[in-house]
Amino acid sequence: MRVTSSPAGLRGEIATLPRPLVLVPTMGALHEGHLALIRRARETAGPGGTVAVSIFVNPIQFDRAGDLAAYPKPLEDDLAKCETAGADLVFTPESGSMYFPDRSINVTENLLSRHLCGATRPGHFDGVCTVVLKLFNLFQPEAAVFGEKDVQQLAIIRRMVRDLDVPVEVIGYPTVREADGLAMSSRNVRLAPEHRADAPRIRRALEGARSLLQFGERAAAPFLAAARKHMEESPFLRIDYLELVDAETLQPVGHIKKPAVLATAVFYGEVRLIDHVMLLP
């Protein structure tokens, strides 16, 4: 497995590696969910292609300085996991090699990012779009794999690729979960023990609300009320948002007529977690 930390070094490595190249962009602190993405990338690249991973804690997508400062960076452990999972190339840049001090260009999405995380994290998706487009330019991959847990991020990246004619296939991979149902996240390790024990209620609340479908419910309000009631029974959890949106446009809906997403972000102390379920009419 090759490792490089500079854009120039990356270009040199890519020039010698076989195609197709499939990219897995990450911010490190890798867990089983990330490793599943790497394995999915290998399926797409095939035994003769290249699986590339980027590990970069992107500062311009953080809306809270404390969250950026606390984000774990176990690089040596991450590299070992990448090699075990079958990565051929890992890119580990520092912020200074990715952004000029006087940078003045951002990539902005202004429809799909209006709600959910976009409404409570100003500038977040500008940072995501900017770094992902930079990574696509640097790697020139045939495809890239992203987790479906970040449902809004995945939709926005697909829209960016569509609208800007970026020649990259965007592949989504289902959310990987702990045995108790909590969606895997690099932030889970920062949960206090009592918060970690309580956190599976996020999934239970969403699944409980989804069960209303089998009784013929299609109005949005009962789904939101059911999920909110279960989450608010926690003495620890604070809801950041809870919304029911169209699965394609990510705009709020009052009645489920097409596939929809029931999505939430919650805080346990300073740790923010997200999850969602699909609702099919």
TrEMBL record:
<feature type="binding site">
    <location>
        <begin position="147"/>
        <end position="150"/>
    </location>
    <ligand>
        <name>ATP</name>
    </ligand>
</feature>
<feature type="binding site">
    <location>
        <position position="61"/>
    </location>
    <ligand>
        <name>(R)-pantoate</name>
    </ligand>
</feature>
<feature type="binding site">
    <location>
        <position position="61"/>
    </location>
    <ligand>
        <name>beta-alanine</name>
    </ligand>
</feature>
<dbReference type="InterPro" id="IPR014729">
    <property type="entry name" value="Rossmann-like_a/b/a_fold"/>
</dbReference>
<feature type="binding site">
    <location>
        <position position="153"/>
    </location>
    <ligand>
        <name>(R)-pantoate</name>
    </ligand>
</feature>
<comment type="similarity">
    <text>Belongs to the pantothenate synthetase family.</text>
</comment>
<feature type="binding site">
    <location>
        <begin position="184"/>
        <end position="187"/>
    </location>
    <ligand>
        <name>ATP</name>
    </ligand>
</feature>
<dbReference type="GO" id="GO:0005829">
    <property type="term" value="C:cytosol"/>
</dbReference>
<dbReference type="InterPro" id="IPR003721">
    <property type="entry name" value="Pantoate_ligase"/>
</dbReference>
<feature type="active site" description="Proton donor">
    <location>
        <position position="34"/>
    </location>
</feature>
<dbReference type="InterPro" id="IPR042176">
    <property type="entry name" value="Pantoate_ligase_C"/>
</dbReference>
<keyword id="KW-0963">Cytoplasm</keyword>
<comment type="function">
    <text>Catalyzes the condensation of pantoate with beta-alanine in an ATP-dependent reaction via a pantoyl-adenylate intermediate.</text>
</comment>
<dbReference type="Pfam" id="PF02569">
    <property type="entry name" value="Pantoate_ligase"/>
</dbReference>
<keyword id="KW-0566">Pantothenate biosynthesis</keyword>
<feature type="binding site">
    <location>
        <position position="176"/>
    </location>
    <ligand>
        <name>ATP</name>
    </ligand>
</feature>
<keyword id="KW-0067">ATP-binding</keyword>
<feature type="binding site">
    <location>
        <begin position="27"/>
        <end position="34"/>
    </location>
    <ligand>
        <name>ATP</name>
    </ligand>
</feature>
<dbReference type="GO" id="GO:0005524">
    <property type="term" value="F:ATP binding"/>
</dbReference>
<comment type="subunit">
    <text>Homodimer.</text>
</comment>
<dbReference type="GO" id="GO:0015940">
    <property type="term" value="P:pantothenate biosynthetic process"/>
</dbReference>
<keyword id="KW-0547">Nucleotide-binding</keyword>
<comment type="pathway">
    <text>Cofactor biosynthesis; (R)-pantothenate biosynthesis; (R)-pantothenate from (R)-pantoate and beta-alanine: step 1/1.</text>
</comment>
<protein>
    <recommendedName>
        <fullName>Pantothenate synthetase</fullName>
        <ecNumber>6.3.2.1</ecNumber>
    </recommendedName>
</protein>
<keyword id="KW-0436">Ligase</keyword>
<dbReference type="GO" id="GO:0004592">
    <property type="term" value="F:pantoate-beta-alanine ligase activity"/>
</dbReference>
